[in-house]
Design goal:
The chain is an alpha+beta fold and 488 residues long. It has three domains: 2-305, no CATH class; 312-422, no CATH class; 430-486, Orthogonal Bundle (Arc Repressor Mutant, subunit A), CATH 1.10.10. Helices cover 37% and strands 20% of the residues. The chain has helices at 67-79, 176-193, 233-252, 298-305, 312-323, 327-334, 337-346, 352-370, 381-392, 398-408, 415-421, 430-443, 445-452, 459-469, 476-486, and strands at residues 9-12, 15-28, 87-88, 91-94, 104-107, 117-123, 126-139, 143-145, 154-156, 163-169, 205-215, 225-230, 260-265, 270-276, 286-287, 294-295. Strands 1, 2, 6, 7, 10, 11, 12, 13 and 14 form a nine-stranded mixed β-sheet that branches. A hairpin with a 2-residue loop joins β1 and β2 (15-28). It is elongated, with a radius of gyration of 30 Å. The relative contact order is 0.10. Bound molecules: adenosine-5'-diphosphate and magnesium ion. Magnesium ion (MG) binds next to loops.
């Protein structure tokens, strides 16, 4: 189902403009060694310690394709429900840059390894399908470092030759929110597959953001500008808003938009022109004579297919059908593979509804607070499950459970031990509760009179008193029942 009734519009003088966005996402392939050499790809090593002669482009060196990276690209293609091409070709994309020792980047141009596919976004206004144009493999360049030496630029070639997947979307995105959800969905799919860690701080995931605007309802796309190499979702969104407004302003002044490559200045929150847009022919692409066309058989592709785990969309469907979650709850719980594993572990022997609420409520708040991933949760799935069972079987109230939760945190302590040690068991003995309530009635005769003469609101006061006197341990349901009987 595609429902698209949400609109992100830029309005000037009563005229509405739509924003059109296409992303070229560069995702670093999870692999121990580089695309055409055996150097390590480990992040954070001393500069220039992971550079083979191939990566440094010594004369006469020959690239040798890394089969594992091919498998990773195909896996990702399957995750994007895309066509896998049996034949693809590696080309040289020629340009000069100090951190590109070869003078060209090996990439795929006319014949990429993965063709058209799609990604489904769960938006508040329904599902939206974003088309994938292609996924191709290419080498990363080295890194120029400008802030070590006051006079010179330093070059670190550790990244040179690392395998990237460039995932090109169709211009189907229409708002900063959709870009946010799209990047998160891509990252989620690749993390499920283990093909890219999606770590944006380490540069494993970055994007070129193409933006254009057009009058609302018009079919023809406007001229796009490409904002290069944006490395956080927040910056992508800021860049889009700035750039779309800039373009609308130009159009409103009756000017044209030049197709160009721009940079986003994160400090000034503006995009600036880098160069007019280069076209493919500026790169003099040609097939790399050192590499044969890449041919993969259907059997090879099928063997990879049989290895694909359950992906977020399928998991979501199963969670809704099997556990009766709402689509919203299911989306949250499957968005990260570790979260979904934790959830399934907790509900193995606990109530699903309570577990969902506790995970998305208290646990997420705790993780958020301490800036932790769920895989490092201070409370294990086993102990959270125990806590939920204590609530479910009436041993403790939901309110007391929050106290117990706090006490569990530091040592991942067994909640049963805490409840016993601290005497937090819920008071559910009707006789004792009756005694307690009799006393409250005895001590608040005036209020009782007012209540009986029609001030219904006071009921809450009596419940509050019972909870207070019992230190929060009285079973609230029983308190209600007994109070009703006694105050009649
Ligand atoms: P290039 O290498 O020249 O950037 P690609 O085909 O690799 O070209 O990528 C083009 C990107 O620009 C795609 O993500 C596509 O969706 C997007 N795009 C194309 N036309 C427009 C447009 N008019 N407005 C916004 N994005 C566009
Ligand atoms: Mg581009």
């Amino acid at each position: 189902m595609t429902k698209d009734n949400h609109e992100f519009l830029i309005i000037r003088e009563g005229k509405s403009y739509e924003v059109v966005i296409g992303l070229e996402v560069h995702a670093q392939v999870t692999s121990n060694s580089k695309l055409f050499s055996c150097s390590s790809t480990k992040f954070g090593a001393e500069p220039n310690t992971q550079v083979s002669l191939v990566d440094a482009a010594f004369p006469g060196m020959l690239p040798v394709i890394n089969e594992f990276c091919i498998k990773q690209a195909i896996k990702t293609g399957i995750g994007l429900r895309a066509k896998i091409n049996n034949k693809s070709v590696f080309d040289r994309k020629n340009y000069f840059y100090a951190d590109l020792p070869q003078g060209y980047q090996i990439s795929q141009y006319k014949y990429p390894i993965v063709g058209e596919g799609k990604v489904i976004l769960d938006m508040p206004y329904g599902q939206k399908e974003i088309g994938i144009e292609r996924l191709h493999l290419e080498q990363d360049a080295g890194k120029s470092i400008h802030d070590i030496d006051p006079e010179n630029t330093m070059v670190d070639l550790n990244r040179s030759g690392v395998a990237l997947m460039e995932i090109v979307s169709k211009p189907d995105l229409s708002s900063p929110d959709e870009v946010n959800i799209y990047i998160k969905k891509l990252r989620s799919i690749m993390r499920y597959l283990g093909t890219c860690d999606g770590n944006m701080q380490e540069g494993s995931l970055r994007a070129d953001v193409n933006v254009s605007v057009k009058k609302k309802g018009e079919d023809k796309l406007g001229t796009r500008c490409e904002i290069k190499n944006v490395n956080s979702i927040k910056f992508m969104q800021m860049a889009i808003i700035y750039e779309a407004n800039r373009q609308v302003d130009l159009l409103e002044e009756g000017k044209n938009i030049d197709q160009e490559t721009r940079l986003f200045d994160t400090k000034k929150n503006e995009t600036r022109s880098m160069r007019t847009k280069e076209d493919a022919h500026d790169y003099r692409y040609f097939p790399d004579p050192d590499l044969l066309p890449l041919e993969v058989s259907d059997d090879f592709i099928d063997s990879i297919k049989s290895d694909i785990p359950e992906l977020p969309d399928e998991k979501k469907k199963r969670f809704i059908e099997k556990f009766k979650l709402t689509p919203y709850e299911a989306t949250i719980l499957v968005s990260d593979i570790e979260t979904s594993k934790y959830f399934e572990e907790v509900i193995k022997d606990s109530d699903v509804k309570l577990s969902t609420n506790w995970i998305t409520g208290e646990l997420f708040a705790l993780l958020n607070d301490r800036n932790l991933e769920i895989s490092n949760s201070p409370i294990s799935a086993k102990n959270l499950s125990k806590l939920i069972n204590l609530i479910k079987n009436g041993t403790i109230s939901g309110k007391i459970a929050k106290t117990v939760f706090e006490l569990m945190i530091d040592e991942d302590k067994d909640p049963e031990l805490i409840v016993n040690e601290k005497g937090l068991k819920q008071q559910s003995d009707p006789k004792e509760l009756e005694k307690l309530i009799d006393k409250i009635i005895e001590n608040n005769k005036e209020k009782v009179k007012e209540y009986i003469s029609g001030k219904d609101k006071l009921f809450g006061f009596f419940v509050g008193q019972a909870m207070k006197v019992s230190g929060g341990k009285a079973n609230p349901q029983l308190v209600n029942e007994i109070l009703k009987k006694k105050l009649k």
